């Protein structure tokens, strides 16, 4: 069994504010070690349950957060920026299933630690085929396009609930209970990381027994609707061929499938950087 572990940072053990996830801030160095340790716990649990091959995708910021020198050597890592499949880099290599470690809730969810959707300064809302989505639904749909179900998500209670809305049989690990956007009741790493390891093993065993979630497949064509924070951002993004402006801050684009939808979404967000 080949597994992709897609990793973000806002849902990692102990993370509660932007200082923790911003590379220029001193607190970031401490938190990237916790990020690596959460990932190692997921790797260990997956291997406990018989996974043969693991690829880790570093999906936060520029993709250079996980400390490779501290990563479990039984896994390989996709690191760096502008990878073809971004946060789920490696999904295109024929993986059987995926984990989402350190994930956060969509923009506007509350209470939720550092809630946002892809960009905290550009994207106000995202809809896929008319259904509001955050990064969990978006990335799970990309995994589903390639036939891989998402078996596990870790983060706060709000991203866990969001994941269950998209993937009812997913296994969730709550490493903190958000009380606002910047505060949470957190488990200590000595508690959270064994929980991640145990849940990872449980999720794989359910999958191999035929009791895990199915891949999340959206019907085609896929309509991507984006609402930006300013009309200027929408001005810039609306020049993409096929984009249809809906109002001052909102546009949509219809795509042949989820692969094209993911690429179009990323292009629109990048174009909106004005």
Automatic annotation (TrEMBL):
One of its GO terms (molecular function) is metal ion binding. The active site is at residue 116. CDD domains: DAP_dppA_1. Zn(2+) 2 binds at residues 8, 60, 104, 135. Keywords: Metal-binding, Zinc. Pfam families: Peptidase_M55 (PF04951). The keyword Zinc applies. Zn(2+) 1 binds at residues 8, 10. This is D-aminopeptidase.
